[in-house]
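It would be a great kindness if you could assist me with a short task in structural biology. A protein sequence and the C-alpha cells that stand for its backbone fold form the material at issue. I should value your view on which stretches of the chain appear to form regular backbone elements. The record follows directly beneath this note.
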Amino acid sequence: MIQDSYANIPQRVKAAFIDSIVLLGMIYGVSELFALFETVPTAARVIAFICVFVLYDPVLTSIYGGTMGHSFSGIQVKRDGDRLSNISFPIAVLRFLLKATLGWVSLLTVSGNTKKQALHDLAAGSVVIEETKNS
C-alpha cells in the first residue's frame, strides 16, 4: 500500500494564488465576451461572474480532483480514506463555500492534525494529497 503524503500550507497557498490568477483571467474573458454585445443586462453580468467564481473550484475538484492551481502545485483533493476517488460535486460545493467563508482561518488549522486537513476538508470529508507520479 502506498503511503499518502499530505499537502502542506505552502503548496496550498501556491494553489490558491494560481487559482486567483486563473479566475481573474476567466472574469476578464467573460468581460471581453460581453463587450462584443451592444447591451447586456446587469443581472446577466452578475450571474455570469458569480457562476465563474462559485463553480470553478467545485466543478474541477469533483471531476478532476482539483483546480488548475492544485494541478500546478502537484496536489489533489480526494475523499478521506479513498485516495482514488474525487469528492462529489455537492460535497465540493460545500467545501468551497466553507473555504470561501472561513478564508485563511480554515487554512491555519492544517498543522493541527496528522492528515493536514483544513476545517473545510474536515467538514467535507476530504484530504489534499501530493500527486503520485506514475513511473
